[in-house]
Structure formats: structure tokens, C-alpha cells
Amino acid sequence: MYKVSKHIKIANSNVVLQDIGLCLLERVCGDGELWVVGEALDAVFDVFSEDHVDPVVKEIDLVPKLKTLAPALKAKVGITYKLLYLS
């Protein structure tokens, strides 16, 4: 019985982690302010840095989505930097 309940707890936590990951990805991919995107990325790194959540990372395609986002984020940082410090 213990093994079954342990697997149910793991399955439920994976569903919760998937929901958290998808919510954070929405914040990261949105056109919000740069500090909000930065905080969401920080939370993604905090939540998904542990090895035991790798199946969830694969399930929600976290790495490919973040790789796709990287060029736009770099451009946004560059524009913000120019607006704040070079004008």
C-alpha cells in the first residue's frame, strides 16, 4: 500500500509542477516588463533545477521553449539597456 500511495503522490506532484511550469512559461513568454520576465525565469530555474523533475521538464518541453525565447529576450534586454543608459 505504501508504494502505491508514494507513486500517487509523485504523480500528483508532477501534475502540479507541470501547471507551475506552464504558468511560469506564460510569464516568461509574455510581453511584460523585463523585471517580471526576469523574476519568472528565476522561478523557473529554482523550481526545475533538481534532477528529479527532469520528466516534468521533458513533458512540458521547457528547454526547447526557453531556447526559442532566448533571442527575443536578448533583444529586449538590449533595447531596455539603451533606453535606460544611453539616452
Strand content: under 5%
- Rg is 17 Å
- Uncertain runs: 1-8
Largest sheet properties: none
Task: Describe the overall structure.
- Helices cover about 85% and strands about 0% of the residues.
- Residues about 1-10 have low confidence and may be disordered.
- The chain is an all-alpha fold and about 90 residues long.
- The protein is built from 4 helices and no strands.
- The termini are far apart.
- The protein has one domain.
- The chain has helices at about 1-30, 35-45, 55-60, 60-85.
- The radius of gyration is 17 Å and the shape is elongated.
Short description:
With 87 residues, this protein is mainly α. It has helices at residues 2-29, 34-47, 54-59, 62-85. Helix content is 83%, strand content 0%.
Attribute tags:
0% strand, single chain, 87 residues
Draw up the topology in text.
Elements lengths: L1 H28 L4 H14 L6 H6 L2 H24 L2
Helix pairs in contact: 1-2, 1-4
